[in-house]
Amino acid sequence: MKQDIDRTLYTREQIDRRVTELGAEIAETYKGVSADLVIVPVLTGSIIFVADLIRHLPFKMRIGLMTVSRYRGATTSGGETQILRDLTVDIKDRHVLVVDDILDTGNTLRTVSEQLQARNPASLRLCTLLRKPSKAPKDLVADFVGFDIDDVFVVGYGLDFNDHYRNWPDLSVLRPELYE
Question: 104 catalytic, yes or no?
């Protein structure tokens, strides 16, 4: 895999430090309301991030999974957002934190947010590991962001290309000739 990496944006150590900081920010935000908190990871890209993140949250929570897809064999988002597995946890009158790997065009998070808002949660906040400020819509705000990045194709730490590289420990840019 190493030969497929163009450059590393963030090492595993840098990611660990930032995830610890995000955990502290989230814990402070939900202090006093944690019993009602439902974490909703957007799978599959957020799986490693959310597993590490929730270890830094010092309270009980429920986890409700959603599997959503927009990137199928491509490096740019296209087509409609597909919900492959819907949430089975009741979120009515509960505080909800959606956790996703990346805020790019905002299509995935917008679809998920709209679906969850229709279920009348007490609150709905968004957490993303990565955000591309140059592409992210101004009207879709992530409450918690790990790192802002340029408009590059990133793999590792759960993010993939054609279902590969999720297990790469760093957040890295894939060599362009592999996907162009």
Answer: yes
Tell me the residue range of the domain where 58 lies: 2-178
Q: For 5-55, what is each residue's pLDDT tens digit?
A: 999 999 999 999 999 999 999 999 999 886 679 999 998 889 999 999 999
The pair of structure tokens assigned to 47 is 């799986």
The model carries a pTM of 0.91
pLDDT of residue 83: 85
Other C-beta atoms lying within 10 Å of the C-beta of residue 106: 21
From the candidates 104, 160, 163, 170, which is the catalytic residue? 104
Query: Count of CB atoms within 10 A of residue 74's CB?
Result: 13
Cβ burial of 179 (10 Å; 0-12, 13-18, 19+) is: middle
The Cα 170–Cα 167 span in angstroms is 9
Tokens of 138: 């101004």
| Burial per residue of 132-149, b for 16 or more beta-carbon CB atoms within 10 angstroms, e otherwise | beeebeeeeebebbbbeb
The count of structural domains within the chain is 1
CATH number, position 59: 3.40.50.2020
Do 128 and 111 contact (CB within 8 A), yes or no? no
